[in-house]
Amino acid sequence: YLAKENKTGIQQYQTGMSKSLSRKMLLEQYLHRAIEHDELYLEYQPIIDVCSNEIIGLEALLRWMHPVLGNISPGEFIQIAEESDLILKLSNWVLFTVCRQRRYWMDQGLAYFYISINVPAQQIHQDTFIETIKRALKQYKLPAEFLKIEITERTAMTNVVKALTTMRELQEFGVDIILDDFGIGYSSISYLVQYPFNTIKIDKSFIQDLHHNSSQKSVCRSLVAMGKNLGMNVVAEGVEEFEQYYYLCSIGCDKMQGYYFSKPISQDLVESLTNHIYTVKL
Ligand code: C2E
Ligand code: MG
Ligand code: MG
Ligand code: MG
How many angstroms separate the CA atoms of 257 and 239, rounded? Predict the structure, then answer.
C-alpha cells in the first residue's frame, strides 16, 4: 500500500479497490456532519399535467455540496447513507425541510402543487414514521394533500404486511403514495395490484429509448393502460425530447416529468417558474 495524505488530512490508499473503499469511508464520515455544516439542500423538479400545461407537483431531490469534494451525486451518497442509520437522519431532514418550504410557498400564495419526497425502506418501516409525518405536517400547518411520498417496488415488497398497513394509514390521513421507478423492480403485475398506489411513475429507462425501439413503445403503452385501468395516476419520468412527449401524449399519459420540461431547480427558480406557470416550455 502506498498511503498518501490528501488535502483533507485523511489517508488514502492508492490501490484500486481500497481507493474506492476509502472514498466511501470518507464520504460516510463527512455525511454525518453534513446537516450541521449546512451542506445539504434540495432541488425541486416540476411534474406537469400536459393537458392543462400546469405544474401539479414538485419532486424534492436531495443535494450535497461538500466544501472540498464539491457536489456529490445522490446516486453515490444516498446508497452510502442507506447502509447505515444515517439515512434516517437525512430523510427526516428532507421531510421537515420540504414541509417548511411548502408552508412558505403557501404563505406566498402558491396554493396548488404538491411536493413529493423519496422515502427509503428504513424510514417507512420505522415505528414512528406515521407520527413523524403527522408531526411535520402539524408543525407547519400543512394540509396532507400537499405532501406525497414516493417508494420503490423494492421498498413496497420488504415487509409486505407492514408496508400495506402504513400505506393505508397514510392514505386515510390524506397523504398519497407514488410507486417510483415502476417497471425495473421485480414485482409482477399481479403483486402490484394488491397495493393501493395513488400514482405510478414509469421509470425513465422505458422512456429513454422510446423512439429507437418499437417494442419499448408497446411496453410503455401497456404500463400506461394498466395504471389507468387500476384507477391510478400515471406519470412518465425522464421525458427529455419532443418525440417522447408526443408519443406519451398519444397513448394517454398526461403527467410527465423530465428535462424536456425542466431540470431539478432551486427553490428560487421554482418561485419565478410558478409565477409564469403558463409559459412552461411547450
Ligand atoms: P428518483 O427518485 O427516480 O428521481 C429521479 C431522478 O431522475 C433524479 O436524479 C432526477 O434528477 C433525474 N431526472 C429527472 N428528469 C430526468 C431526465 O429527463 N433525464 C435524466 N437522465 N434524468 C432525469 P437524482 O436527483 O440524481 O436522484 C437520483 C436518485 O436518488 C433518485 O431517483 C432517488 O432514488 C434518490 N434520491 C434523491 N433525493 C432523495 C431523497 O431526498 N431521499 C432519498 N431516500 N432518495 C433520494
Ligand atoms: Mg423519486
Ligand atoms: Mg423515479
Ligand atoms: Mg428513477
Answer: 6
pLDDT tens, position by position, 243-265: 999 999 999 999 999 999 999 99
Contact 81, 72 (CB under 8 A): no
Ligand 1 contacts CB of residue 199 (under 6 A): no
Summarize the confidence of residues 100-118 as an average pLDDT. Answer: 95
Q: Among 155, 226, 207, which residue's Cα sits nearest to residue 186?
A: 155
Q: How far is the CA of 161 from the centre of ligand 2 (A)?
A: 23
pTM (predicted TM-score)? 0.92
What counts of helices (H) and strands (E) characterise the chain? 12, 11
- In 3-state terms, what secondary structure has residue 191? helix
Ligand 1 atom 8, closest CA: 61
How far is residue 36 from each of residues 26, 33, 39, 92, 146, measured CA to CA in Å? 17, 5, 8, 14, 27
For residue 189, the one-letter residue type is I
Task: Say if residue 102 is exposed, middle or buried (CB neighbours under 10 Å; 0-12, 13-18, 19+).
Answer: buried
- Ligand 1 neighbourhood includes 63 CB (under 6 angstroms): no
Q: Whose CA is nearest to atom 41 of ligand 1?
A: 62
Calculate Rg over the CA atoms of the chain.
Answer: 20
Grid cell in block for residue 279: 409559459
pLDDT digits (tens, 9 = 90+) for 162-189: 999 999 999 999 999 999 999 887 666 7
Q: Match 422510446 to its residue by C-alpha cell.
A: 210
